[in-house]
């Protein structure tokens, strides 16, 4: 299952889904994300964590812990 945040996500996910179907016969399920979360990306979360921002409301606890280990004190 994949989540789509914007129209630009659709193009790449469509290509991937078609290749998956062609290679394996397995279809992909693609769901639009909530507009409340549509702005969140892994790149943006890493950047926020790198500069000491709090990402705990956007990620599960284990992910927040790993980001804190990767960017201790918000310094890169």
Report on the architecture of this protein:
This protein is mainly α. Helices cover 49% and strands 8% of the residues. It contains three helices and two strands. The protein has a two-stranded parallel ribbon. Helix 1 links the parallel strand 1 and strand 2. The longest helix is centred in the first third of the chain and has 18 residues. The chain is elongated, with a radius of gyration of 16 Å.
Question: How would you summarize the topology of this molecule?
Answer:
Elements: E1 2-4, H1 7-24, E2 30-32, H2 42-50, H3 61-70
Parallel strand pairs: 1-2
Uncertain runs: none
Helix content: 40-55%
Structural class: mainly alpha
Estimated radius of gyration: 16 Å
Q: Tally the helices.
A: 3
Describe the structure using short key phrases.
2 strands, 76 residues, two-stranded parallel ribbon, 49% helix, mainly alpha
Q: Concise description?
A:
Helix content is 49%, strand content 8%. It has three helices and two strands. The model has no long low-confidence stretch (mean pLDDT 86).
